[in-house]
Design brief:
mainly alpha, 2 domains, three-stranded mixed sheet, 47% helix, binds heme C
Length: 170
């Protein structure tokens, strides 16, 4: 989880795009697995009442959960999960269940810690401005991991991503 969080970290964008960063930080995109506190338990319900009961899902126990299972929610709530290993999927599930148990036991510190860990994964700047920016990659070219995508192409004043490239949808 930490590795995936680092790959999609938005904090390096803050110093120059301060206002946009603040808007984002206060939005549900910054906590897309936890949500308002409803998304996290609903993912657990989807595992308990969905995945575990569906005869051909391959999930009998939470140990069986792979990336493909979480993608039923993550295709929108955490699209970058498709780049992670199944171990990451299981770490997310473990974090969700630890969070739920901590709430039930009234262990606020542990619940807060798990909430924070879940929120380290989110729909950050690079999910929209890089990973998912090109809707038609066979037509408009595949995503360049050294660029951020916006409404037009020009040099980006940031050495980590030195180019702004045009994405038609943006
Ligand atoms: C050192 C300063 C700096 C940093 C850090 C930085 N940017 Fe930028 N970025 C700029 C400047 C300057 C522009 C020009 C447009 C503007 O002023 O908003 C720009 C433009 C953009 C655009 C193009 C918007 C458009 O449609 O024209 C996007 C998208 C963008 N940045 C995303 C990011 C993301 C994502 C990050 C973090 C990974 C980031 N930037 C970090 C300075 C920076
Ligand atoms: C096709 C995209 C998509 C998929 C797939 C998806 N969601 Fe969502 N979900 C959204 C969007 C967009 C919102 C925000 C809607 C809004 O704010 O009106 C949302 C909001 C939510 C909310 C309310 C936010 C909150 O925390 O109060 C919950 C709960 C939720 N989703 C759970 C799930 C679960 C669980 C799954 C998988 C079983 C899932 N979603 C699959 C797009 C999706
Ligand atoms: C959910 C997708 C999404 C996320 C997350 C997101 N953006 Fe954007 N952003 C857009 C879209 C779509 C536009 C173009 C429409 C518009 O200008 O409102 C845009 C416009 C911009 C622009 C150019 C327009 C302007 O107002 O200057 C910049 C710069 C930018 N985003 C930077 C960022 C940064 C930095 C982050 C993270 C803190 C971020 N965005 C997060 C979708 C996103």
């Amino acid at each position: 989880m930490a590795e995936l969080a680092a790959r999609y970290d938005s904090s390096s964008c803050k110093e120059c795009h301060e206002e946009i960063y603040e808007e984002w930080e206060n939005s549900l995109h910054a906590r897309s697995l936890y949500g308002t506190g409803r998304t996290a338990p609903t993912i657990i319900t989807s595992i308990e009442k969905g995945l575990k009961r569906w005869p051909y899902s391959g999930v009998k126990d939470i140990k069986d959960i792979q990336v493909k299972h979480l993608m039923i929610c993550a295709k929108c709530h955490l699209p970058q999960l498709d780049e992670a290993t199944d171990e990451v999927a299981r770490e997310i599930v473990e974090t969700l269940y630890t969070w739920k148990r901590a709430i039930q036991e009234g262990n606020e510190d542990l619940a807060d810690e798990m909430e924070e860990k879940l929120n380290s994964l989110n729909i950050g700047c690079l999910v929209c401005h890089q990973k998912k920016a090109i809707i038609h990659p066979w037509v408009d070219s595949p995503v360049d991991k050294n660029a951020v995508y916006g409404s037009k192409s020009y040099a980006h004043d940031f050495e980590k991503y030195p180019k702004v490239k045009k994405a038609p949808a943006l």
